[in-house]
Amino acid sequence: MERDKDKTKKKIIEALAQLLAKSGFSNIGINAIAREAGVDKVLIYRYFGGLSGLFAAFAEEENLFPKPDMIKKTGEVKLSSDLAEISKNFIRHYCNMLRKRPVTREILRWELIERNELTDSLAETREKQGLQVIALFDNYTEIDFPVVASVITAGITYLSLRAKTANVYSGIDITSDKGWERIEQGLVSLIDKMFPKNHLQKEADS
Amino acid sequence: MERDKDKTKKKIIEALAQLLAKSGFSNIGINAIAREAGVDKVLIYRYFGGLSGLFAAFAEEENLFPKPDMIKKTGEVKLSSDLAEISKNFIRHYCNMLRKRPVTREILRWELIERNELTDSLAETREKQGLQVIALFDNYTEIDFPVVASVITAGITYLSLRAKTANVYSGIDITSDKGWERIEQGLVSLIDKMFPKNHLQKEADS
DNA sequence: TTGACATGTCACCGGCCGGTGACTATATTG
DNA sequence: CAATATAGTCACCGGCCGGTGACATGTCAA
Lengths: 206, 206
Known about the structure:
The first copy, chain A, is mainly α. Chain A contains ten helices and two strands; from the N terminus they run H-H-H-H-H-H-H-H-E-E-H-H. In chain A, strand 1 and strand 2 form a beta hairpin.
């Protein structure tokens, strides 16, 4: 008997992360978490008030959806470069972030099935950051930028989730680093098409 | 007692569709399906050999992922218009198809979680059709078209699934017809950017 | 030291699950 | 009519689930 409440709480929270990374949300339950943590399930009720409370604690604890570097701590956006560069950086950051965060992916997966304290919390931060970035493009009206940005990030999200149950999507390898470099690169050139530097230059390379 | 094997089989298959549309795949199980069909569960084992067999039968029965009109029955592709027009038509078809097919959406959702006879069957037809369309753009090398097409269709898929648990994605309304018209329109103008008719015309409207 | 409290253990409940064996009722065929 | 195959019913099993009450054990303060 360890008799250390804080340590036990931490063990439980880490067990949740472990379970998510290992087998996704489908097997998440009081029994499974307690088993994984090597702790009696009644403690989950006592310390967190059940699954919901544990989810809330987990959402606060972990850095599930880090802000891109371009968004400073103050929430201000670094405007050092043009819109195309901002877009490219965001895409690169988003791809890498998702690729190296299995737990975040599992929660995004979960989010498509049901809502709970965890998914809601993640969805909220994501929505806020998305709006923040999109706001930069307010005066760019040649295309419906919010729609395009939404579809592209949604597409990246989908492909990163799909990689768990498939290797290929429309011929694109979605499991290897190489495949993801191709995806990033392809999107980057799309961005260049969307934001032509100027018409003269465009005329020149034809 | 009805004593009509074929009718009972149909009842079971339809119960599966009903359940999927009603409450998604999470509640799918022998007991639930039998209950929904008003039939004893042992018949599912006898007639289909269990869930897997039922899934296979269901996949054959239903038209879960209809081909777009542009792909004729022979598999040939109608080349009546230019690449931009083909892309736009495909996007429109894909959005509408997903929006009006709750069962297909549920299976796509399922596909992100686990694999079974149903999800594999749907994934296969989808992959084939995707490659067929993308093949049309083989000689268009200005951008990595397969990547862009994959990300866009993946994005549409994600947003259509996400609409079950959220109303908004980066400020875009993803639940109403109006919101989806905006998404279609936004992508259509993106396509126009990707396939400029010619440089003279492009120069003219600036 | 002793009592009170916090921490952790254990056993049990009802409910749903997938799966199966034994049964009944109907239809068919000789 | 009788024998047999087929369609459908029913009861039961073990296992896992979420949830709870009763208990044991350690800690700390009066």
